[in-house]
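hey
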């Protein structure tokens, strides 16, 4: 009987094992789930607040830029209206210049020439006493 004597095995030092009941386990599980949901909610709220702050700061930065652009747009619209009025006037003048019935009138306006069939009338503002003095302006050949 060569059997070796069996020595009692030493158990490692640890807390005494306390077995939890299923009610306690479910309670801790529910508490842990609630903590995770609360953490997730706080994290989402923090991210959304951060994004909102970034959006507001961007709007505050862009508002003066938008006002400047609106001012420039008004100036450009005013210039466009002036240009449209000038274009309309030039179109009227253009159509008048190429109207064959007004060629003589246009020629008289632009060159100060007079049609030979017309007579030149000159109004003199001098008094009758000064009328006998010759004036270079009143002498028309």
């Amino acid at each position: 009987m060569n059997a070796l004597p069996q020595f009692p095995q030493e158990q490692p030092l640890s807390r005494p094992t306390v077995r939890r009941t299923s009610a306690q386990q479910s309670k801790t599980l529910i508490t842990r789930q609630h903590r995770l949901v609360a953490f997730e909610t706080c994290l989402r709220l923090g991210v959304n607040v951060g994004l909102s702050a970034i959006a507001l700061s961007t709007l505050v930065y862009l508002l003066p830029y938008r006002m400047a652009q609106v001012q420039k747009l008004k100036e450009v619209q005013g210039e466009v209206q002036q240009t449209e009025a000038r274009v309309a006037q030039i179109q009227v003048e253009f159509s008048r210049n190429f109207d064959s019935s007004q060629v003589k009138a246009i020629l008289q306006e632009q060159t100060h020439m007079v049609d030979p069939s017309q007579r030149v009338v000159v109004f003199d503002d001098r008094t009758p006493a000064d009328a006998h003095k010759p004036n270079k302006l009143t002498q028309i050949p």
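The two ends are 168 Å apart (CA to CA). Residues 24-112 form one domain.
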